[in-house]
Amino acid sequence: MRRTRKLIPVALMALAVAGCAPSTGAGVTPETKAAEPLPGPSVDANFSLDTLVAAAKKEGSLVVYDSSGDIEEVAKAFTAKYGIAMEGVKSDTPQTAEKMTREHAADNVTIDAAMYEDGGVLVGQLIPQGVARTWVPADLKDQIPAENHSPLLALSKATIFAYNTRLSPGGCPVKNVWDLTEPEWAGKLVMQDPLGKPTVLSFFTQLDAHGNQALEQAYQAKYGKALEAGERSAAYEWIKRISGNRPVLTGSDEDISGAIGAPSATEKKIGFMSISKFRNNEDKGYAQSACEGMQPFVGFSYPKYVAIAAKSRHPNAAKLYVHFIMTEEGVRHEIGEGGVSGNGTVKPLVTPPGLADWKGQLFHTDPKGLLGDLQNRQTVSDFWRLNHG
């Protein structure tokens, strides 16, 4: 079922145009949108936060979708601050995209705003189609770097390689990403199935776009010789070897965290999981840390955007939510166990164990490559499926 769902984002353009059920075949493709400029963000010329709050209170409520359960805590904080009922709904990004598109086509919108990890679908489909739009709070505009305006970057999160500190007290047993392609680590990497996880697929396409040199250098450092890739690039060679080394695929980061760091764990494994699951160290007594020093990166960062449904029935409440999430008071609930706000004045609040240098330890998503991520997603999906043992 998960492998069927991965096709939904690619089909959404046809869905919006035809107003029918999703299709994996004909329709408008992402490539046809590539030459069209992305609609810019809107900024209210005569912005007043007090006026916005008053208008939002008249609307009375709003619904915000997010792929993280942290949205429930954001909703509680928002309601407590403004007295406006906010419902935060945890929903996987592909399902949120499909629902927003269907609601827009039917003029029956229930989702007022969404937090989006899948930047490719946002800039390649939802915004160009008019399903969603970007709004930047005028009073915060100068605090948000210009490159974060369109679409509006709420925060950056990360997926990292993690290990059990109790089972490996001397540090991470994996020192290089190529280690995970070796027979000794066959069946010992636990990760979400990329076919159901857009951020991992985007990581793969971004690696191919601007990570090949780092992978080649890491290979040279490990084996003492240059990589002779049989595939189109070092990135595809690494993906092929990783997928063929029998990784254990799950449907959630919580499952990965349990397999790696739970007190009952007895076998050394490496997890490729969200840093949000480091909360389990305190909440559940887990023993987890990022693989500090792993070459050429410990994991990857990915952007999380915020967008408003174009036909929202609570547009002022949706704008107020955007304003809230772009402040420390709002985003701290999303940052959780680590992350960086899109507002440059908000300092990082938490440093996950083993990830002291956010900028230097991670492979970073290039926002200029978001559309390329969407266009190349099917290629890398098929490549993973072909090589996964």
UniProtKB/TrEMBL annotation:
Keywords for the protein's UniProt record, in alphabetical order: Signal
Q: Where is the signal peptide?
A: 1-26
Stretches assigned to coiled coil: none
Q: Where are the transmembrane segments?
A: none
User: What protein am I looking at?
Assistant: ABC transporter substrate-binding protein
